[in-house]
Write a structure and sequence with these properties.
The chain is α/β, with parallel strands linked by helices. The protein has two domains: about 210 residues, Tandem AAA-ATPase domain (Rossmann fold); about 220 residues, P-loop containing nucleotide triphosphate hydrolases (Rossmann fold, 3-Layer(aba) Sandwich). About 45% of the residues lie in helices and about 15% in strands. The protein contains 18 helices and 15 strands. The strands form three sheets. Strands 3-4-2-5-6-1-9 form a seven-stranded parallel β-sheet. A six-stranded parallel β-sheet has the order 10-15-14-11-13-12, with helices on both faces.
């Protein structure tokens, strides 16, 4: 058995055990997994199904061994038609597996269904959402559903509709819900939260949600400081990315930069964030080029700090593949051991990269881990490092928070510092303003 739960975790365990439908929305790194596992023990659940991203399966298997005292059989489901014992079983399955094998899984009646990282079920059209929450989904064959997520609505309130509907707390259609609780554009696309209905939404969420912040229940945990750091633009690495297409890419980026300036000049400053939310797809190439133009500054900073032992280990957060590939090649060429994580990293390579990063530097461990933000946001412990550099950020605030907070937790003994690099007078500034607006709105709902 692991160390005992902390008092606030005992409260979380008891909260889940008292509910047939619940969302544990504690801030990241506060231990939602052991709270859910020990709650399963408390209700003497015989058949438990954990639904999670594929990369989280090993974590759940190890944590059940560590935290549960019930002696259940633990099965990681990977093959279609895989046998599931009738009683005293924990089945751990990825969302993709559940989507493809729902017909087999609903043959069981589950005592507890645990959708982990339940913000993965935010899209009303996604098959994984339907497999869990829709009529005839696994939720219909489960006595208890305990959702876990530190960012239940990563982007806007519309992403709460699937869980609210599944839990029977609203009867609105998705579009009625969006029109009532969200600000929208002319096409009805949700852009944010309606301030005049926030309190009503908070009251609905409160009926089934327990959320605690680190500063409330674990003030002893190190703070995470985010610092905006301006850097100079450089085309030094541009030709290393797309030697044939590079000129065309630069021309498209310059055109998008001009279009952005013209569009923003036409509207008041307080409408810029909403415009960026609605038109993010129009500036994809500009964002990609901006990332490449910041990479030389990031490379020089990393190289200088590692070579002069100013930091022991560094986590680098990126959004686009190009800077990841650049740093993955350039840093090792300078003798700096570097690991890489991106969305398509195979599970064994992912585990190897994390293991190498956790190994002490003096024992040959890697000094730098370059991560795609989404890949760094799930089932990973980055607390071996206390210094990070965000070369880019995701448009979705919750995705950034999920990744940055992986450096925290009870294993972290130092204050956490993350430097967010930006090019002055560029789209980076508008992205930052947009994220600030979204974060403020989401905080008004949950915090």
């Amino acid at each position: 058995m692991a160390d005992q739960l902390k008092f606030f975790q005992e409260v979380g365990r008891d909260y889940l055990a008292s509910k047939t439908r619940a969302l544990l929305a504690d801030q990241m790194r506060l231990g939602k997994t052991p709270q859910a596992i020990t709650a399963c023990d408390k209700v003497r659940a015989s058949k438990v199904l954990v639904a999670c991203p594929a990369i989280a399966r090993p974590v759940w298997k190890e944590h059940f061994k560590e935290w549960s005292s019930e002696g259940r059989s633990i099965q990681t489901l990977t093959n279609p038609g895989q046998y599931i014992e009738a009683e005293n079983t924990v089945a751990i399955a990825s969302y993709d597996y559940i989507r493809s094998n729902k017909a087999d899984l609903v043959k069981n009646r589950w005592d507890v269904l645990i959708p982990d990282e339940s913000h993965f079920l935010k899209s009303i059209n996604a098959q994984r959402t339907k497999a869990i929450f829709a009529k005839g989904g696994l939720g219909w064959f489960s006595d208890r559903i305990w959702c876990l997520s530190g960012t239940p609505a990563p982007n806007n309130p519309s992403e709460l509709w699937p869980i609210l509907t599944a839990f029977g707390l609203i009867r609105m259609t998705y579009y009625d819900f969006v029109n009532y609780f969200c600000t929208t554009n002319g096409d009805g696309k949700p852009t944010g939260a309606r301030a005049d209905h926030v309190e009503e939404l908070r009251a609905i969420i409160k009926k089934f949600t327990l959320r605690r912040l680190k500063k409330q229940v674990a003030p002893e945990l190190p703070e995470c400081t985010l610092e905006d750091v301006p850097v100079e633009s450089s085309t030094e690495f541009l030709d290393l990315i797309r030697p044939i297409e590079c000129d065309d890419m630069m021309i498209r980026a310059q055109g998008q930069a001009r279009d952005l300036k013209i569009a923003l000049d036409k509207i008041p400053a307080d409408q810029h964030a909403q415009y960026m939310t609605l038109n993010a797809d129009n500036y994809v190439t500009l964002r990609r080029v901006n990332a490449i133009l910041k990479t030389p500054a990031a490379f020089e900073t990393i190289k200088f700090e590692i070579e002069n032992n100013l930091v022991d280990k560094l986590v680098i957060f990126c959004y686009h593949r190009e800077p990841i590939k650049l740093l993955a090649n350039l840093l090792p060429a300078e003798g700096i051991k570097t690991g890489v994580l991106y969305g398509g990293t195979p599970e064994k390579k992912r585990e190897s990269a994390i293991k190498a990063f956790k190994r002490p530097s003096k024992e040959g461990g890697s000094r730098v881990l370059v991560c795609q933000i989404l890949a760094a946001g799930t089932a990973i412990d980055l607390s071996v490092a206390c210094e990070g550099i965000a070369l880019e950020e995701d448009w979705v605030p919750g995705n950034n928070a999920q990744a940055f907070e992986r450096m925290g937790g009870y294993k972290q003994t130092n204050p956490i510092s993350i430097r967010k690099l930006y090019l002055p007078d560029s789209i980076d500034v508008e992205v930052a303003r947009t994220l600030t607006r979204k974060e403020k709105e989401l905080s008004s709902i949950f915090d």
